[in-house]
């Protein structure tokens, strides 16, 4: 820990970015002032990173029409950068969802998906349901219904 970074904590957890969202041109709410990670965003608190993760999943659902674990993970973690098929198997095992199962637009379907995604990205999922749901819903009054 010579550089002040505890590398025993997974990078996504350290960065309050449990989805490991790569830096891009989006000015996310809740970004930390110092963005010292060269690849991934750093958020002020985990809730902000969870919020960004959920917003991306909702864009996938409503803009790109991605509603199955297979389709969602192929976009989230493309084979050019990740072991995508292993990722999908993990999601299915962790959630009980079939890879081609269409998810409902509900907290009951998305909360297990978010947990499984965080688990795969970090090797652990340290957040309680209250924190996850607060992050998933921060800034709006629930899931959009205009499919």
Over the alpha carbons, how many angstroms does the gyration radius reach? 15 Å
Q: Low-confidence spans: pLDDT under 50, at least 5 residues?
A: none
What structural class do you assign from the helix and strand content?
A: mainly alpha
Order of secondary-structure elements: HHHHHH
Estimated share of beta-strand residues: under 5%
The number of domains is 1
Mean pLDDT: 92
Describe the structure.
The chain has 147 residues and is an all-alpha fold. It has one domain (11-137). The chain is built from 6 helices and no strands. It has helices at 11-14, 46-62, 69-76, 84-95, 107-122, 129-137. It is globular and about 40 Å long.
List the helices and strands and how they pair.
Layout: H1 11-14, H2 46-62, H3 69-76, H4 84-95, H5 107-122, H6 129-137
Descriptive terms for the model:
147 residues, mainly alpha, 45% helix, globular
Write a concise synopsis of the structure shown:
The chain has 147 residues and is mainly α. It is 45% helix and 0% strand.
């Amino acid at each position: 820990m010579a550089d002040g970074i505890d590398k025993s904590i997974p990078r996504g957890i350290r960065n309050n970015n449990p989805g490991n969202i790569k830096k891009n041109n989006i000015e996310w709410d809740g970004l930390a002032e110092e963005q010292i990670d060269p690849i991934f965003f750093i958020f002020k608190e985990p809730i902000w990173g969870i919020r960004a993760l959920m917003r991306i999943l909702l864009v996938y659902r409503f803009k790109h029409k991605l509603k199955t674990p297979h389709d969602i993970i192929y976009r989230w973690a493309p084979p050019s950068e990740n072991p995508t098929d292993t990722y999908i198997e993990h999601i299915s095992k962790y959630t009980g969802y079939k890879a081609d199962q269409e998810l409902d637009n509900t907290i009951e379907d998305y909360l297990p998906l978010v947990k499984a995604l965080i688990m795969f990205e970090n090797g652990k999922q340290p957040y309680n349901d209250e924190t996850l749901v607060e992050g998933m819903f921060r800034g709006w009054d629930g899931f959009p219904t205009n499919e």
